[in-house]
Specification:
This protein is an alpha+beta fold. Helix content is 22%, strand content 26%. The radius of gyration is 15 Å and the shape is globular.
């Protein structure tokens, strides 16, 4: 199980994540490409919450293919196109990580856009077992 790294000498995380994660030795590492909110049938939710939910569903499927779960995730990198979508993304991330301890390291960046204007969220994950 990874160890969370939240030193007392720095400000506490302001969300449900760890400042750092230490893991090792590891048997297998999985790094996902950025996942968009596209379902298998090509459909796309019109809002950031729905797209984030699908991003995490896609990551769940990738992890399962490698015999892993959200509990194996060390780091999440996420990107949203609108600052106002920050809370919706965070709620979906926290729902996906419910019961997972330690929480992975996590970064959220606001970007100007993706390859298609209807894409609002992209999420990538790094996992190890």
């Amino acid at each position: 199980m990874p160890d969370k790294l939240n030193p007392q000498g720095i400000a506490a995380p302001f969300g449900a994540y760890s400042h750092g994660i230490a893991a090792g030795p590891v048997e297998r590492i999985v790094v996902t490409s950025g996942q968009l909110g596209l379902a298998a049938d090509g459909s796309l939710a019109p809002d950031a919450a729905g797209q984030a939910r699908q991003c995490f569903a896609n990551i769940t499927a990738i992890l399962a293919e490698a015999g892993m779960t959200a509990a194996d995730v060390l780091r999440i990198n996420a990107f949203v196109t609108r600052r106002e979508d920050f809370p919706a993304y965070m709620a979906e991330r926290d729902r996906w990580l419910e019961g997972v301890e330690p929480r992975p390291a996590s970064t959220l960046v606001i970007v100007t856009g993706f390859t298609r204007p209807e894409f609002l969220v992209e999420v990538e994950a790094t996992a190890a077992r």
